[in-house]
Amino acid sequence: MEERAGKKIFNGIAIGKIKFYEKADNKVTRTKVADTEAEIARYEAAKEEAVRQLNELYEKAVVEVGEANAEIFNVHAMLLEDDDYTESVHNIISGQGLNAEYAAATTGDNFAEMFASMTDNEYMMARSADIKDVTERVVTILSGGNGGTDIGDEPVIIVAEDLAPSETVQMDKTKLLAFVTRLGSANSHTAILARTMGIPALIGVDIDKSWNGKIGIVDGYEGKFIIDPEMPLLEEYFKKKAADDEQKKLLQTLKGKENVTKSGQKINLYANIGSPSDLASVFENDAGGIGLFRSEFLYLESADYPTEEEQFQAYKKVVETMGGKKVIIRTLDIGADKQIDYFKLDKEDNPALGYRAIRICLTRPEIFRTQLRALHRASAFGNLAIMYPMIISVDEVLKVKEISKSVREELIAEGIPVGEVEEGIMIETPAAAVMSDELAKVVDFFSIGTNDLTQYTLAIDRQNSKLDPFYDAHHPAVLRLIQMVTDNAHKAGIWSGICGELGADTTLTKTFLKMGLDELSVSPGCILPVRKEVRDAD
Ligand code: PEP
Ligand code: MG
C-alpha cells in the first residue's frame, strides 16, 4: 500500500482500477521537403480538419458540461487560426524547407514556452497546455491519426502526467471515476471541467507508472491518493463512498427547493464566479443569483487591458444568461496577490496593505470609467448590481458613486440604453465594519468579504500558509464584526450578505441565520450543502 498527497480539485471519493494514461506518442521527425507550397497546403488541410474536430467536440461538450465550459474548444480553434501561429508554421516550412509536422510541433513548443514563462499570470500560464493540446491534434492529423482518446471498457481512475481539456472531454464519462495528475493548475480548464462534471480530482501528485492496473482510492475531501489499499482500509472507504453517494443523491433532491428554515426564515443562496465560463455550474447547482462575479479575472485572462466592448460582452452574457436573476459584479480587485504585468504596479513591501482594488480605480480613472461604462451598458440586459471592493470610508463611497453617476449620465447623453443598478460595497476592512452604520446610509447593500476581513482583523496574511493555524475565520472578533455590520445594514433598511469563503462553512450556517444575514454567496458546488443546512435549521 502507498499513499500520496495532492491538491484537491473536486470533492468526492472514487475507488477503482488505476489506468495510467499516456498521450499517443507523436514522434516528430525533421525532414526536408522539396515542394514547400504543397507542404503548406497539407498543413492547411490538417488545420481545417482539426477545426472540424474541435467544432464537433464543442457540440459534445455543450451537452455534457454546458455552453460556457465548452467554449474552450472554440478557443482552441481560435489559437489554431491565430495569425502569429500560422505565420510561424508557414515560415518554418517555406523559409527552412521543412515538413509540416516539424513546423507545427516547433511552433507549438515555442508558443507553449512563451505562455509558460508568464509566471506572474496564472491564467496565461495555464493556456500553455491548450497550445500543446491543439498542436498535438494537428500533428496527429498530419501523421494520419484521428486524435481520439480511448480509456477502455471498464471504469478507471485516470492517472496522468497532465491532461488537456480536449482529452478530458473526449473520455467516456461513464468509465471515468477520477483524475489524478502530476502537473496542471487549479485554474486550468481541465480542473474547471472536473469540477463541472463533478469528478473527484487531485493534482500535484507524485505519480508512478508502476501503479498501472492496481486498485486506487481517490479521496477528494482529504486530498489523498491511496494505491493498493489493504483490506480494512478498502472496506472503510467503500462505506465512506456509499455514505458520500447517498449524501450527493440527497442533495440533488434539494434542487428547486427554497432556502427556508423550519420556522420560515429565508436566506438567498447565490454563487461566486470568476468568468462567464462558470455559468454552467451555477445552473447545475441551482443558485438563486450571482453574489460575486470577480471581474478581475477578465483582466487576468487578458494580455492587455480588456476593452469596454470586451467587458460589456462578458457582463452582458452573464446577466442575460441569468435571465433576470440578480448578478452582482465586483469592480476590479487587482493588487496584493493578483498582479498583472500590464498594470505595471510597483513592488511593495506590504502588498495586501498596498495599492489595490478601489485605490487603483480612484487614482487611475480611465481604467475605472471603462469598466463602469461596460457595467452600466450591460445593466440594460438584466438585473445587474455593482459592488466596490476594499472600501474604508464614506468619503470613498461618495467619490466612487459620483464617478459611476457621471458615467451613467454620459451613456444616456450618447443615447446608449442603461438599466437601474443597485450599488453596494464589500465589507472587508475593519474600518468599513466599524463605519458600517454611516456607510449603510449611502449604499444599497453590504457583502462581507470574510477572506480579507479575517486577514485584516487578525493581522494575518491570508497568503502565508505558515500562518494557516492562526487564520481563524471563526474568531469571535470576526463574528462580532459580521453581526455588527448586519445590524447596521438592517437599521438603515438595506441587506447584508457574506461572499467570502466563510459563507460556505456549514458549521456556521445556523449562526448566520441567527445573525439575520440575508444572503450567502458561495462557490457553486457549495450551494446545495448549505441549502441542506438551512432547511435543517429550526
Ligand atoms: C473576500 O475578501 O472575502 C472576498 C470575497 O474577496 P477576495 O477573496 O476576492 O479577496
Ligand atoms: Mg477580498
Describe the structure.
- This protein folds into three domains: 2-23 and 149-250, Glucose Oxidase, domain 1; 36-143, PtsI, HPr-binding domain (Enzyme I, Chain A, domain 2, Orthogonal Bundle), CATH 1.10.274.10; 253-536, TIM Barrel, CATH 3.20.20.
- 46% of the residues lie in helices and 15% in strands.
- It is built from 20 helices and 16 strands.
- An eight-stranded mixed beta sheet has the order 1-8-7-3-4-5-6-2. It has an eight-stranded parallel barrel with strand order 9-10-11-12-13-14-15-16, surrounded by five helices.
- Helix 3 packs across helix 4 (100-116).
- The longest helix has 30 residues, at 36-65.
- It is globular, with a radius of gyration of 25 Å.
- The two termini are 45 Å apart.
- The structure holds phosphoenolpyruvate (PEP) and magnesium ion.
- The site of magnesium ion has 5 residues, from helix 17.
In summary, what is this structure?
By secondary structure, this protein is an alpha/beta fold. 46% of the residues lie in helices and 15% in strands. It has helices spanning 36-65, 67-81, 83-96, 100-116, 122-142, 165-170, 189-197, 231-252, 279-284, 296-300, 308-321, 358-363, 365-378, 394-413, 430-434, 436-439, 450-458, 476-491, 509-515, 527-536, and strands spanning 2-5, 7-10, 13-20, 156-160, 176-181, 201-203, 215-219, 224-227, 268-273, 290-294, 326-330, 383-388, 422-427, 445-448, 495-498, 519-522.
Salient structural properties:
Enzyme I, Chain A, domain 2; binds magnesium ion; single chain; Glucose Oxidase, domain 1; 538 residues; eight-stranded parallel β-barrel; eight-stranded mixed β-sheet; binds phosphoenolpyruvate
